Amino acid sequence: MNKESLLSFGAKTQSSNLDGFPSHLGCGVLAPSQRNIITRRNVNKRAKSVSEDDQTNYKRVVEDKRNYLHNVVQIILSGGGRDLPVCEINKHVTALANYKHSEQARLGDFVLNAIDKTFKDTVQQKAWNALNIDNGVTASKVFVEEFNSWNANLELLSKAFLYLDRVYLLSHPKKQPIQEHGLRLFAETCLGEDSEHFRLIIEKLIKSMHSTIIEDPGLIDHKAFISLMRLIGRIDFDKTYVSIMGLEKVLSSNYYHWNSSWMQSPTTYFDKVLSNLRNDILLFKQMGYNETAATFARQVLRHTIITDLSKVLSTCLAPLLDTTRSTDLGILIKYLLAEGETVNADYVKEVIYYFGMHIQAESGRTLESCSISGKNPIPELIKLRDRYFDVCKNLLYVNADKFEFEVRSALSKTISSADNQNFCLRQFSKYCDSFFKSKEIDIDAFISTLIAFFKLTENKSKLLSNYERDLSKRLLLGRNFNFSMECKIVESLLSEVGEGVDGSKLKYMIGDLRRCYDEYSHVNVDINFFPLVLQKSNWPDVPKHSTDIKLPEALQHALTTFTDYYVRSNKKHKYQQLDWTNYMFHQLTLSVHFDKGPKDLQVNLLQATVILSFSEIDTITFKELHERTGIDESLLHKVVSSLSSTKFPLLRRDGERFAFNFTFWDKAQKIRPPMSKDKENAITEAVKKAEKRIRDDEIKAAVVRNMKANKTMLYPELIGQVLMQLKSEGEISVTDMKKAVEQLIEQEYFKRSDDGQTLIYIP
């Protein structure tokens, strides 16, 4: 039968519903006229027997329909039939299947046998030829095209024989639906255990393409590989072929092959491994191999990262520590956690170790860079800390607490190392000074940075001692001093220290100042005068700068008036002596009207005494100035030099005589002529004495810690323990130790027992 006659079979001129055609589902299908008569008369009558002529006619029709459907099967499997009337064909299938069950079974067997024969005679050879093309990408594309063509034929055949497919084949215990039967045939031939030749060449093709892709994705068409892999997932109905092929081993072997090459470029190593691994895992999951994806990931880790984990982490971890790569780092940790649980190993601990080593190295480079450039490293270190905290917070699949702890620990080790400790402490002091000199003040940000750095410092006692010294300088010299901000900073530091010896002087220093504000700020001495009456033992050692001096009347009156008030204010004050002799502590502001306008001169007591000498006379000789002020000649030379410098020529010299320079002008409203040499000497001496006091404070802190922990201790036992604990930081004399214990007993940190040998801690 040609195509034209086939397509006309079952047209409108012929019966397609087979009126009166017998069916295996009943005793026969009657003509509509007969059915109507039965319904109308409502009379049950046996159907009339079919005549021999009708039987012959039925057989002819059945044979014609059978032949028609057989030809449809052949046309579709050969790649044609795209224009066939699928609905009409399905009506004929339905009629034939309903006629007799044997016809339905016979048609089903014919369809499945035709699929088997077509695949064996044609499709199998085409698939083999495609796989043997030399170019891997071309071979993959042609192989997939052959599969898609075969699948399209099966899909069309399934639609045309829909009734047979869904009613008979789908529910049959030993047969599969049309499309599944054809695809299983394709799968078993190409991937089954008995198809070694097909399977090996497919494995080789997959391995070759995958190896090229993970080495350089731009070298081949990635889509061809993905299409081939998805084809395998499509036809592996029972998910058994992946294990038969060992697909995860095939692909993971490529990672092992390229691992040493990737290690040559540490900055891109993890990019190569993790991006390729991520793509392959996604592909496995799209294929439906979820368990295989997990197995594959572990095999890749064993072939790459875990093979030499220490070397990989030490050389290649840095790029993953960028904030934009936190996800990749989290994925790596997730893989290592899973693998570690499998082999009972803690791979994440090793990641944390090298994470800390990297931070130590980077923070060390930061300190070195700041040392060369002159930039203060304190804010830079805190920025570094915050950046790595962000990395920790963005980690997925893992608790970030251990990583955040390692950030703090690594920075603390760098800051507190023998090479960096003194540098960091000096820079800490400079950072505080620069803040108070800055015009743009953000106290909260400053305190946040200050406390963050304080927490990172191991030797907190030494840092606090430095801060006490710097605070003393700002308070006593009255430079860059803001009392409210100083109090806020000290409170923040003390909240971190807690109760104890460390930081106690800060509390007493601030307390002294508050008391002065409360008790003495209202005293009237005819000038704007604010005295600081401080307990000397509460303050860091300061160099003594004293000299005999004849004060101007206004200043002498102020000191005398306040001294009288102080003695009268409290009976205990009769036995106390106010020391006004340290001229560096007296900071005065003189309002002077120059020819071009008023200026405020911020000077020390000696400078003020010299300047005020010109309020009564216009010119004066150095000898007369010495007699009038009583200042030592060598010291007076320094004072006069500071007031007649090139930058601040407040005095003019004409031969042996000096006159006040009312023509002086400067754009600044406040003028501070420095006595630089004295200032430098003062700082140097203060630092030396502070170093000795810091050691004493360390001893006291160690003694209090031991007593607080043990509650009661024998005197020799306490001395021995403290000596052992502080030995690593330098030798300590037993005399200093005993002196510290006695001072702490006087301050009531602990007391002696009745026998005098046991010390008891006082909560």
Automatic annotation (TrEMBL):
Family indicated by similarity: Belongs to the cullin family.
Residue ranges constituting the Cullin family profile domain according to the UniProt record: 423-644
Organism: Candidozyma auris (Yeast)
Domain of life of the source: Eukaryota
One GO process term, biological-process aspect: ubiquitin-dependent protein catabolic process
Name of the protein described by the UniProt record: Cullin family profile domain-containing protein
Annotated InterPro entries: Cullin (IPR045093), Cullin-like_AB (IPR059120), Cullin_homology (IPR016158), Cullin_homology_sf (IPR036317), Cullin_N (IPR001373), Cullin_neddylation_domain (IPR019559), Cullin_repeat-like_dom_sf (IPR016159), WH-like_DNA-bd_sf (IPR036388)
GO MF: ubiquitin protein ligase binding
